[in-house]
Amino acid sequence: MTKSIRKETAIALGIDHSLIPERLRNRLNGYLKNGTIPKSMINDVPETSESHQYTPRPIANGNQVFLRNLVFLDTLFDDTKAVKCFIHNSYTPSQRADFLNIFQRESIAKLELFKSLIPMLDTVLEFLKQDSIDWNVDELPCPYKDSKLMVANLSLRHDLSIYDQALKFLLNQDLRNAYQLLHDNPEQFSNADAMHLKVLIEQRYAEYSEYAEYLKNFE
Question: What is the mean pLDDT of residues 134-160?
Answer without folding.
Answer: 62
